[in-house]
Amino acid sequence: MLDVCVIGASGYTGAQLVELLLGHSEVQLNRVFVSAASADAGKPIGTLHGRLASSRLTLEALDEASLAMLADTMDIIFLATPHEASHQWMDQLSGGKARVLDLSGAFRLQDIQAFEQYYGFAHTSPEALSKTVYGLAEWYPQKISKANVVAVPGCYPTASLCALKPLTAQNLLDPAHRPVINAVSGVSGAGRKAALANSFCEVSLQSYGVLGHRHTPEIEAYCGVPVIFTPHLGNFKRGILATITVKLANGVGAAMLQQAYQQAYQDHPLVRLRNSWPKLDDVVHTPFVDLHFKADPESGYAVISAAIDNVMKGAASQAIQCLNLMIGQPAAKGLIPL
Ligand SMILES: NC(=O)C1=CN([C@@H]2O[C@H](COP(=O)(O)OP(=O)(O)OC[C@H]3O[C@@H](n4cnc5c(N)ncnc54)[C@H](OP(=O)(O)O)[C@@H]3O)[C@@H](O)[C@H]2O)C=CC1
Ligand SMILES: CC(=O)N[C@@H](CCC(=O)OP(=O)(O)O)C(=O)O
């Protein structure tokens, strides 16, 4: 059994990770952390997240002095913390025997200038960054299996990349036209802390981050083409629906699309090629990506739709896929019956 811990366990993605790890046969989870100043330190995790009410885990305050101890004693450390905290702690956490999976955006962009532009602070951990692997589980399994540090992708990039990569990997898109991604996310994507803009009476379907969201460079970096990405906040708790319009390269039609998606995902049970347009109810609280697409022979455009649960495939269940790859288990272990 591997010793694992979760830092940031009181948040939405952290608590989801705890739930998945408690049901995973290859690991033991005995320690869960919040920040040193947290008002939740000392509380049983089940008092914050009722679904974990039968767990005996208590949230511990993590002081900086304990980082090196965790790095030396744990096999795997999960960071479900704000970008700034992950950035600040990665050097120490990745300096011992532990392998680290970070759910934040702190180590996803290798371009540190783009990082500073989109995240608003300078990246000062080039060494940890250089050994980080991007954890898009279906696309980089070999690299993930050997990684000491994994940057688990963001929620919108997961939906967008799973939809786009079968096409960009085979050069099926017209390079003169950027893919246009419109995506709607539930409010849990903004995290658990209270904020006026995310409160019940304030949320009304609306775009945000237009032409400047930090997930734009992340999507571009890992599909290799520039995109137009527009996120929207919807008045529901969980899930992302991304609708993507692309211009196909000359001569590419429905049959080639079908072949590209089948080839990409035939050995990946968590990506489901659906016969109808995906809907959130089918994926919420699951580790699946549902995809559907249609090509228009007249215009040469195609529309692809992807649905995921932002807290699961967009964060925690994708982190479990990466864990499985790192420990030589099937990627879907602990997520679906195998
Ligand atoms: N929600 C989502 O759908 C997704 C989120 N992510 C990313 O995952 C990470 C976690 O997100 P999410 O679970 O939504 O966030 P939450 O706000 O729900 O939880 C954040 C957690 O981190 C702890 N924390 C906050 N500040 C610090 C700090 N300075 N040091 C240590 N711990 C701290 C919080 O507890 P406390 O403040 O009490 O210490 C809490 O446990 C973020 O980087 C987010 O961007 C990625 C993909 C999807
Ligand atoms: C609805 C909402 O606010 N969503 C978040 C994205 C959450 C996520 O996956 O992204 P990171 O891990 O990159 O933070 C946002 O747009 O900032």
UniProtKB/TrEMBL annotation:
Pathway where this protein functions: Amino-acid biosynthesis; L-arginine biosynthesis; N(2)-acetyl-L-ornithine from L-glutamate: step 3/4
One example of a Gene Ontology biological process annotation: L-arginine biosynthetic process
Cellular compartments annotated: Cytoplasm
An MF annotation (GO) of this entry: N-acetyl-gamma-glutamyl-phosphate reductase activity
Keyword set includes Oxidoreductase: yes
PROSITE patterns: ARGC
Residues at the catalytic site: 155
CDD domains on file: AGPR_1_C (cd23934), AGPR_1_N (cd17895)
Keyword list, A-Z: Amino-acid biosynthesis, Arginine biosynthesis, Cytoplasm, NADP, Oxidoreductase
EC number of this enzyme: 1.2.1.38
SMART domains: Semialdhyde_dh
Residues of the Semialdehyde dehydrogenase NAD-binding domain: 3-147
Catalysed transformations (reactions): N-acetyl-L-glutamate 5-semialdehyde + phosphate + NADP(+) = N-acetyl-L-glutamyl 5-phosphate + NADPH + H(+)
Gene3D superfamilies cross-referenced by the UniProt entry: Dihydrodipicolinate Reductase, domain 2, NAD(P)-binding Rossmann-like Domain
Biological function: Catalyzes the NADPH-dependent reduction of N-acetyl-5-glutamyl phosphate to yield N-acetyl-L-glutamate 5-semialdehyde.
Family: Belongs to the NAGSA dehydrogenase family. Type 1 subfamily.
Name used for this protein in its record: N-acetyl-gamma-glutamyl-phosphate reductase
Organism: Salinimonas marina
Upper lineage: Bacteria, Pseudomonadati, Pseudomonadota, Gammaproteobacteria, Alteromonadales
